[in-house]
Specification:
Layout: H1 2-23, H2 27-38, E1 39-40, E2 62-64, E3 70-74, E4 81-83, E5 96-98, E6 103-106, E7 120-122, E8 127-130, E9 144-146, E10 151-152
Parallel strand pairs: 3-5, 4-6, 5-7, 6-8, 7-9, 8-10
Antiparallel strand pairs: 1-4, 2-3
């Protein structure tokens, strides 16, 4: 009887802890998987983006640092369409976001302003609409911001003048 109690207690404990391990599972992988589900991918370039893996570091077109944190997403010229997702702003160590020469549309998420490690943001040759988010002015390490050949409206935000590292706009 005592052995059965231990087994039941252990199973109960595992059931209680499992949701927390799922919630704390790689948030970056969850963010990228959300992007994947929001994009049309006719050439299956995102086929390796399997949300059941521990982290996205083994996915094609994703580079991680030694701490298994995403630092680069390379999806330029991949024939992708759809819209970006605000969850991209959760990739706190992302340095390079390369999404140029696709058919991505809709607004540029203001959440990209949370990517404070970003060095290069390449969104040129897409179908983005709306204004350039003011929040991009928070990207103090940004050196390359390429937004040309989109359907953006409005003026260039004054906040971008705060980025002293910016070399290409």
């Amino acid at each position: 009887m005592e052995g059965e109690v231990v087994v039941v207690f252990t199973l109960l404990l595992l059931c209680l802890l499992h949701p927390f391990s799922f919630i704390s599972a790689n948030m970056e992988g969850d963010a990228l998987h959300t992007l994947r589900t929001n994009l049309e991918d006719p050439n299956n370039v995102l086929q390796s983006w399997d949300p059941t893996l521990v982290n996205p570091c083994t996915w094609f077109h994703v580079t991680c640092n030694s701490d298994n944190s995403v630092i680069r997403v390379d999806l330029g010229n991949a024939a992708l369409s759809g819209q970006l997702v605000p969850q991209l702003g959760l990739l706190k160590n992302l340095q390079y976001l390369e999404l140029y020469s696709n058919n991505i549309s809709g607004p540029i998420p203001s959440d990209l302003g949370n990517l404070t490690s970003l060095v290069s943001l390449d969104l040129y040759l897409n179908s983005f609409t709306g204004p350039i988010p003011e929040t991009l002015g928070k990207l103090s390490k940004l050196r390359f911001l390429r937004l040309n050949n989109n359907s953006l409206t409005g003026t260039i935000p004054m906040s971008l003048t705060n980025i002293t590292a910016l070399q290409v706009l």
